[in-house]
Amino acid sequence: MPLLPFGKESHLTRKAKELTRNDWVLAGLAALAEGGIDSVRVERLAKSLNVSKGSFYWHFSDRSDLLSALLDLWEKDFTAQLIANVASQPTPRARLLALAEEALDASMDGVDVAQAEGAFSAWAVLDPAAAVRVRAIEAQRIGYLVRELSLMGADTAQAELLAKGIYLALLGVFAARRYNPALAEDAVFRRIVALALDAVGGRRR
Amino acid sequence: MPLLPFGKESHLTRKAKELTRNDWVLAGLAALAEGGIDSVRVERLAKSLNVSKGSFYWHFSDRSDLLSALLDLWEKDFTAQLIANVASQPTPRARLLALAEEALDASMDGVDVAQAEGAFSAWAVLDPAAAVRVRAIEAQRIGYLVRELSLMGADTAQAELLAKGIYLALLGVFAARRYNPALAEDAVFRRIVALALDAVGGRRR
DNA sequence: CATTGTACATACGGTGCCGTATGGAATACT
DNA sequence: AGTATTCCATACGGCACCGTATGTACAATG
């Protein structure tokens, strides 16, 4: 269960090349972001890590164990973290705008989070268990958007509609970035966000 | 090459159960819409059609031959057809609103087109050859949106931004419908479209 | 220094899929 | 009637992957 067996001596006194469970998870995340859930194969990951399957099955009970770990990582290190990062902004509008920038630019350990986001969505389509987790994460995100839009003065129905609209557009950006980047320009998403914010906060000029 | 060998006698004078190439394509489309491109497997389709692989390899040279046929079907029977259906509307605004409704509700031979749309996008991510075709189709769609928005008075930059924004939101709807339908309500997309149209055509009240 | 546990490597059986080769039944052709 | 053509069934080899069983070098421990 512990990510690092002891913490003191583990990668210095030992052979200095031993893999942790977390190394496998990160490799899985990279594979997921790049080629989708179907690319997350234990024998391929083993090869990419210059190691054999024996290592994998020491750290994980089976493939679905790794997949669960990917969803855990996703649930813990994203969403809440991104939201926390914009809490310092003074106004709801500023927080939402900052959040949009974060969503467009996030990365983790060298993997493009936007690519991974799209891969998680595509995964949820094919795997009902994954879908449950993904829906829960998205509910948190939508919930945050709704709260901030409400603070801006939108009534509940309006806030829900706009929050979902913004998020759907973001899903579109994540999907399109993976095969049609010309379509998924940041400016397009920014425009959508601006339209939604203007719809509740009054027109800017 | 011909979809029906002769046209007169083919499914009446013969055993009345023989499959055409098109039957396979439609079965492939259904499988694609339901489980993604990875579900389009010749042995699975054969089983679903109560037939053996022998049949498949008589009608197709290999699996990628079927996949190309799926893209052909997509290219020919969609996009242009949907656009033609709204040509009778009097104004650009009415045409775009009607197009939005069509995109949300389309179906073909019992398969939900929205589900298939999402599957095509997901497919394009994993298959560069498919991506080329999908991008070409999307370019047609975006192009139409841009033209109509321009007719409404938007300048080129504005029209492109809004067209892509609308389409990205639609991509989000297609993606979300497959695993999180509560997120992909039609009303959400309609709101986005309304915001975009209002941004160019002046505010309604 | 012998023992124990860690972190792998290697080898195996099994499954699902692809594409091919070949055979066979029904229909159309002359 | 006999032959050719159409459409499909069956059988095969091969690959990529999964999970398990077993062996093994090394470090940690008493």
From TrEMBL, chains A, B:
UniProt keyword annotation of DNA-binding present: yes
A Pfam family that the UniProt record links to this protein: TetR_N
Keywords of the record: DNA-binding, Plasmid
Residue ranges of the TM segments: none
Molecular-function annotations in GO: DNA-binding transcription factor activity; transcription cis-regulatory region binding
Keyword match DNA-binding: yes
Known DNA-binding region: 41-60
Domain HTH tetR-type: 18-78
Name of the protein this chain belongs to: Transcriptional regulator, TetR family
